Structure formats: C-alpha cells, structure tokens
Amino acid sequence: MNRLGPSIVLALTLLLPGCGALTRISEVGRPPVMTPTADPTRDPAWRPISMPMPAREETPNEANSLWRSGSRAFFKDQRAAMVGDIVTVLVNINDNANLKNVTSANRNSAETGGMPNFFGMEALLPKNIVDPSKLLSVSSANNNVGNGQIQRTEAVTLRLAGVVTQVLPNGNLVVAARQEFRVNHELRELQVTGVIRPQDIASNNTVLHDRMAEARIAYGGRGQLTEVQSPRWGQQLMDILMPF
C-alpha cells in the first residue's frame, strides 16, 4: 500500500487537469467565475475569415457630384459598418422534423432435383442414396421488418449584441457576439459568430440569424446543475474506450 500510494497520487495529479477537475475544485463554495469582457480578436482561438471576393474595381472621380460610387445611402445612418461597431443579432430558431420509415420484405424459395433414370447409370450411385429421384431438395425463407422514426423539435430565441471584428473587401461584416449571465451558481454562455451583409441590417441596427453566412450559434453553460446532469468524466472515458 505504501508503494501504491505515491503512484495513485501521481496518476490523479496527471488526470485532474485534463478533466477540468482543478477548475471545479477551485470553485467549490462559490459560483462559477465569469469571463472578463475583452476584445474577441485577442482570443487565441480567433482566426480572421477569408471569403471569396470579386475583383476590385477602380472608382472614377466625378466632379460636381454629391454621390460617391459604392455608397449604399445618400445620408449616413447609425447602422454598424466598421470594425468595433455594435450590431444586435436576433436568433429565432423553431425547427420541427418528423421522419418515419417502414420497410417489410418477405421471400420464400424452394428447389427440388433428382435423377430417377439416366441410361441405367443411376444404379452406380452410392448405396446410401435410396431414392435417386430425391437427390436434392432445398428450401429457404427470409422475412425482414424494419421501423424507424425520428422526431425533433428545437426552439431557441436569443437577442444579443455583437461586435464587428472584420470588414471584408466586398463590404461584408464579420460579427462576433458573446454574452454570459449567472443565476445563483449556474452560468449560461451565449455565442454567435458569422458573416452578414450591411444591406441585411435593419434600421434599428439588428440582423436576423438566418441572414448570417457561416453562422455558429452556441447556447450552453456550466455550474452545479449542469454537472449533476452530466455523466462523470470516468464514465465518459469508459464509454469511449470500452468496445462492447
């Protein structure tokens, strides 16, 4: 036991950081720590987006004209247009799917073969063949019934503000929105990222999620209730490693 003690402690020390146990232990007796508000482009996981772009066209200068080629409006509005501007993303997902498949297959077959008379050569057959007319008799039956049904209902309604992190060469905007709120000891995290067109931004500076290209929407969290509803990391590891 004295020899096994240090080995067990070492193994637990190596496993704890991988399963996030150190973070959970540090939060015992107090709510989860919220992420500080920061520039999303400073996140190590953030990467600039590169999208297919049209060829750049030179804008001719027109004298004595108040309109500038490439402008989307005569008067300047307050909608997001530059890096650092804020735009509100409206997420309203209400999806329903109902798939049902029924298959049925039934097959019966029978084959019979014999050689009652064949130029008298049937007498040369082995003695264990009593009746040459029944040399072969094969029958088979196959029955297969399958039923499958998928029912899915999802409803998510979110409204959160995001920051323009990039202005692509064709004028489209890359938006990153993140929000956290904590109730008692449960922390909820909302994240939305994607590419939007300035034309899809409404006059109240909002944009719908279905107008976002490459949209990534995440709604989750962590806390005491989430930990109780999740299987323990040891059980998850066994589910991955066990082949049966």
Describe this structure in words.
The chain is an alpha+beta fold and 244 residues long. The chain has a domain at 99-149. The protein is 15% helix and 39% strand. It contains four helices and six strands, in the order ααββββββαα. The chain has a six-stranded mixed beta sheet with strand order 5-1-2-3-4-6. It is elongated and about 115 Å long. The mean pLDDT is 78.
Strands of the largest sheet, in order across it?
5-1-2-3-4-6
Helix % is 10-25%
Instruction: Give the distance, in angstroms, between the N- and C-terminal Cα atoms.
Output: 32 Å
Q: What's the alpha carbon Rg, rounded to whole Å?
A: 35 Å
Count of discrete alpha- or pi-helical segments spanning 4 or more residues: 4
Detail the poorly predicted runs. Answer: none
Order of helices and strands: HHEEEEEEHH
Largest sheet: 6 strands, mixed
Q: What is the total tally of β strands?
A: 6
Strand content: 35-45%
Sum up the overall morphology in one term.
elongated
Mean pLDDT, nearest integer?
78
Helix/strand class: alpha+beta
Helix-strand blueprint:
Blueprint: H1 4-19, H2 21-26, E1 86-113, E2 136-167, E3 173-183, E4 186-196, E5 206-208, E6 213-223, H3 224-229, H4 233-241
